[in-house]
Structure formats: structure tokens, C-alpha cells
Hints:
Blueprint: E1 8-11, H1 26-29, H2 37-53, H3 55-61, H4 69-77, E2 85-86, H5 87-90, H6 94-99, H7 106-115, E3 116-120, E4 124-127, E5 131-132, E6 142-143, E7 153-154, H8 155-171, H9 189-192, E8 198-200, H10 214-218, E9 220-231, E10 234-238, H11 241-260, H12 268-277, E11 281-286, E12 291-299
Parallel strand pairs: 1-3, 1-8, 8-9, 9-12
Antiparallel strand pairs: 2-5, 3-4, 6-7, 9-10, 11-12
Amino acid sequence: MREVGQVRILLPPSEAKTGGGDGPSLRAAGFGHGPLAGARAEVVRAVAAFCRADPPAAVVALRLPASRAQADLAANVAMLDAPTMPALDRFAGVLFQALAPAALPPAARAVADHALFVSNGAFGLLGATEPVPDHRVAMAAAIPGLDGRTAPTGLGAFWRARLAPALPDLLLACAPDAAGAVAVAAVAAVDAVGEHLVVDLRSSDYATVPSLSGPIRAGALPVRALTEKLVDGRWVRRPLSYQAKQTKGVLTRALLLAEAAGRPVKTIDDVAEVAESADLVAEPRGTATAPTLDVIARWNPTA
């Protein structure tokens, strides 16, 4: 029998975060021994130093909103010493509100722990259970002090180069052990990851960090979330960001519940069926060898 929880889901981050945490700081616990540990330490230290040394420039480079700039700068400065919590509990934006990880049944949360991965400017790609401090670091930012350079380095380019070779190992990561370290499959990762359907829900800022290729791309399903609004009795497609993020959260939750219930998600048809069961409209696109899926939420403002 196929193991429950074989699907892998790539999510965008949210700028909104849950504050606090009761996990050990990164300074105390370190960055683990995974393939991104050194790069994460480099980025976190560079961001903290930048925000401490030149706050006005950091506000611009990190695109911090004026209403939260001081709080976000303080969080970034404190990243090494702040308490942590699992990544899936740290992110708190619209997508994650719809996903509602705290309200997942235990079996679905267990699936989430090894199925969900969140793109992130400070940490590259985070497994659901990995410890994360509060922070605000966009992938589009350029940071000085990386790769031994004083000139700013774009985080997208920095992480693209490091994530591409590490992605098979990361997607085969298991749930953390008692110490919080992620156990990564050591052999045949590139071939083995092709056995998993990778549902790619990343937003445009993150979709190429990294681009999916090889066996991963062959088993990947890029999913676009759209919204249709009822206007004069017709469903009209609208680029509504809030509803699109909410749709991604609803779909992710439905996929986790399906796997936890013993309904493996292995194909585009499986994802479409799960989407329809969550009252979403699913429209397969692409080709037989490179499928994509549009998932549409219909919004009736008068209902």
C-alpha cells in the first residue's frame, strides 16, 4: 500500500507572522545540518547586520511598509536571539488563515509536517516543522554582505543557486526528530522525488526560486488560483489577490485532509477532484507531459 502523505506542496510565504514562540533561538539551536544551513546562517546574519547598521536603507531594500517598518526592523535585528516556532504556525496571512493549521485533525497535521514547504527570503525553503523566528525578508530584496560582497546581492539569485541542487533532498525530508533536526534522505534523492506529485502554489515572486526541472518538473503540477465574481448574472474573472490567496489555502487544506483520509493525491485528476470537493472549480490546462491546473473560487458579492 502506498504511504499516506506522498504529495508535496510548495507554498508562498506571507508577510504577516504570528509573534512570539516558545522554541529555542537560532543562536542557541543553530541552523541544523541540512543542505541550506550555511546559506540560512549567512542571510540571517547579513539581514540583521544591515537592519542594525543602516535602518533607512534597510527599510527601502526590504520594502518594509511604513506602518510596520520599526517593528519589522526590530524583528530582523533580533532573528538570531528571538524565540522560534514551527514555520507552519509562524506564517499568518490569508493563505494560512484559510489553511488553519492549528485546526487540522492530527492525521492531517502529520501529513502537513512532511508535505508542506514554504518559500522564504530569509531561509530559502522551509519545511512545515522547521523552527523560525519572527522576521520580514522579501525574496525580492537585495542585501549587502552576502557571498563576501559589500554590494547588495539579490536574494532571488542567491537562493536560486543554492536551492536548485538541494531541492530533491529537501522535498524528501522527513518529519523532525525530537531535537528538531530534519532528517533528509541520503540516497537516490533525484530519482526518488519523481515518485511524488509536487503541487506548486508559489506566487510569481517565488516561482523561479528555483525553477522546477528534471524528475521534479516531470512530477510537478503548477496551480494557478483565480477568482470569478458574479456580475449581472455572469461569472467574470477578476484578479482579486485576497480571494486567490484564500483559494490556495482552501485547496491546500483539502489536499491534506484527502491524504490523511487515505485518498492519495498522485495526479492532476486527483487534485482537480479534491478542488471540486472543496467547492472550487478546476480547469486542467497545459499538455500531457507538462500539465497545469487553474483552480477558481466563485464569489457572489450579493450572497
